[in-house]
Amino acid sequence: xxxxxxxxxxxxxxxxxxxxxxxxxxxxxxxxxxxxxxxxxxxxxxxxxxxxxxxxxxxxxxxxxxxxxxxxxxxxxxxxxxxxxxxxxxxxxxxxxxxxxxxxxxxxxxxxxxxxxxxxxxxxxxxxxxxxxxxxxxxxxxxxxxxxxxxxxxxxxxxxxxxxxxxxxxxxxxxxxxxxxxxxxxxxxxxxxxxxxxxxxxxxxxxxxxxxxxxxxxxxxxxxxxxxxxxxxxxxxxxxxxxxxxxxxxxxxxxxxxxxxxxxxxxxxxxxxxxxxxxxxxxxxxxxxxxxxxxxx
Length: 297
Ligand code: A2P
Fold this sequence. Notes:
The protein is of the alpha/beta class. It is 36% helix and 13% strand. The protein has an 8-stranded parallel beta sheet with strand order 3-4-5-6-7-8-9-10. The protein has a two-stranded antiparallel ribbon with strand order 1-2. β4, α2 and β5 form a beta-alpha-beta unit. α1 packs parallel to α2, α2 packs across α3 and α3 crosses α4. The radius of gyration is 18 Å and the shape is globular. The site of adenosine-2'-5'-diphosphate has 18 residues, from α9.
């Protein structure tokens, strides 16, 4: 299928008219220090201008350092970070969480700020008021010009419905675990109907889809690799993929998704993979607390 974008820096338009580059560089599971630093450095050298991080990833300092050292002009970059659970027990702490993130990043503002997780286990009995308070903080940060857009991540339909009861400003983005193995058809339709851009983290199924034999056949047919097929699938669906890699060669190849198109049969093959990948993490059951031990205290 044809798409409008034909390079990394082409953009989607958010519901507040902010332009967001169609592919973002993911940093979830890139360790703080050399690994995250080099990954972001290589991504910026390769021409990525959209970088996605989070307080919970524990790598904001390295990401920020790589941005600083790259010499890329701030206004040419699109940087996303996210508010983590332990700093959103109330409105004031949510504001503090943002301040801590931009301090670690070494930035004056970000381009997109997201509530990372809708139902933290420790606040399970009052997630509705918790999200309303955090959202009020997000709106304040947005109105103060400290972020150019605001949104949510891992939110299901019911979380957004609930948020909208008290929100003054609707979310611009919902970032979810999304790839052909877990297509979230109802949720992406919901996002679209609410003018919320769907961003896909783990567009490669955290790597789990890369050995799929059907995808290998498709990749051979187009003379590309499986990762490129998966990233292209996201774009053709109108989603914004955030592929993550710590290898320069993958960072380079993952951007080469503009010189081929998937046809009707390819889409049929990809659509049939729904349910076969590693599935999204249920926000009710999980918290990611274990993967961010430094944030547990
Ligand atoms: P690595 O970080 O070691 O380079 P996702 O974006 O779905 O979370 O997937 C990320 C995983 O896929 C990581 O393990 C990453 O490895 C791997 N990966 C990223 N790009 C490629 C690629 N082009 N070929 C093979 N593996 C890749």
